[in-house]
User: What shape does this take?
Amino acid sequence: MSETTDVCPCGSGKKYADCCEAIIKGTIKAPTAEALMRARYTAYVKHEIDFIINSCEKGEKIAEIDRKATEDWSKNSTWHGLKILRTEPGKEPDTEIVEFEATYTQKGIRDVHHEIGGFKKINGEWFYSEGLIRPTTVVREGRKVGRNEPCPCGSGKKYKNCCGKNA
Assistant: This one.
């Protein structure tokens, strides 16, 4: 199945070509903050790092996004789905709140990234502005790795000398 006929990862039920692709490729602007959030999630799934970075608000008081960390999270995770919990107007004009959960697995651990995202409309275009992470309980997929077993990250080291060093 080609990428243009695949169902969009954002959970809309639409084909990727009819949903987030045009926003990610820059053909159209996200019509709502929720549409931008869905496109950003899809960009993580499809490793469209430039879109993730370029869809963030920029300015003197805005923290720089860490490209390498973003790319690592995108590429080293198996993405399971996006759930939009709520959307509502922000406190300021041209702002919106999108609360969401993005479920993924990394290094054998399934996790839920639960965030209350702030979005701003600047010159007619939506941008991700800030986020408040809501902690969740991490649930391990599969059995627990023993201290003396090979590390699941693929380094070739024992788990206790690699990713389990500070666990």
